[in-house]
Write a sequence for this structure.
């Protein structure tokens, strides 16, 4: 890192630390940008556009057997990215910030479970957890690795060396194109009628109302909202930024590239979430905010206008959902 880059990073860290000192109880919305350092690809580039074709739609998965064959065949190859992923710097930093009393809860759009692996306790998995599958008829759940073992047994030879070299895509998908007509997808062994689907919210589906209410409660109880590693291009995450703004709560963002909520931020820092949040935890370990553990902050002044800090070299495109 050059001297200029270091000075910019230091300035960004100082601004974020000042924000936390002023608003010491944060609700946090996270996206794929906090998990890219764990080896999980993201969906969007620095402008917020798709990096690859949009993922599976809920209606298509539920209505077409051919779509389910293609989905599960590719997942049998690509899901290793999620299985092998381990918490990265951003996950560990947020867990420590929770332990310090600064982060009061995390609303994650990711389905990888890495926040919990890192030690975070108050996590709303907005879009569910990819490690489970659910029967869409009777509601029975089973572990995904168990279902994948059955898929592999029913489709011997599918996981060839050629398939193993397929490029990984977000959320356990793989860039694999073949004739999927012969791929066998078992139905529910409990009711004998249902379709197994990952226990996640696909595009085109709705987040359960109770889950949204749980996430909104975290926003309402916080002094401010921090967005980390998300472009918020999908409404299911953007709604929390909008709700916080309507409630007069200041918003800060640490993300590489444009987001849907750029006009709402009191503080926008274009930087790696892992690097900046790790720096924040180190700063707070040295001098934790007194208000963070024991009481709410004093009445807020109006949030300052948004200003973006640009890291050296420009954003590398790690802009997620």
């Amino acid at each position: 890192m050059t001297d200029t880059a270091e000075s910019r990073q230091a300035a960004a860290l100082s601004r974020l630390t000042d924000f936390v000192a002023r608003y010491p109880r944060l609700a946090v919305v996270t996206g794929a940008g906090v998990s890219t350092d764990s080896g999980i690809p993201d969906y969007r580039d620095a402008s917020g556009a798709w990096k690859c074709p949009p993922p599976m739609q809920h209606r298509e998965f539920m209505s077409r057997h051919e779509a389910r064959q293609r989905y599960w065949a590719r997942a049998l190859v690509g899901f290793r990215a999620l299985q092998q992923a381990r918490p990265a710097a951003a996950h560990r930093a947020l867990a420590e910030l929770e332990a310090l009393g600064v982060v009061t809860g995390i609303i994650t759009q990711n389905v990888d479970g890495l926040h919990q692996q890192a030690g975070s306790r108050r996590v709303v998995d907005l879009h569910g957890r990819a490690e489970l599958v659910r029967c869409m008829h009777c509601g029975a759940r089973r572990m995904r690795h168990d279902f994948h073992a059955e898929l592999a047994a029913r489709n011997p030879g599918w996981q060839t060396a050629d398939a193993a070299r397929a490029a990984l895509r977000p959320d356990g998908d793989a860039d694999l194109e073949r004739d999927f007509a012969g791929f066998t997808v078992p139905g529910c062994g409990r009711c004998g009628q249902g379709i197994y689907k990952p226990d996640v919210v696909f595009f085109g589906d709705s987040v359960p109302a109770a889950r949204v209410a749980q996430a909104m409660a975290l926003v309402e109880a916080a002094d401010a909202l921090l967005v980390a590693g998300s472009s918020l291009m999908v409404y299911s995450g953007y709604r929390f930024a909008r709700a916080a703004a309507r409630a007069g709560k200041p918003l800060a963002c640490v993300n590489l590239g444009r987001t849907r909520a750029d006009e709402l931020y009191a503080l926008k820092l274009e930087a790696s979430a892992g690097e900046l949040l790790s720096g924040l935890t180190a700063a707070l370990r040295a001098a934790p905010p007194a208000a963070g553990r024991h009481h709410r902050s004093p009445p807020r002044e109006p949030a300052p206008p948004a200003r973006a800090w640009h890291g050296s070299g420009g954003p590398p495109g790690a802009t997620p959902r």
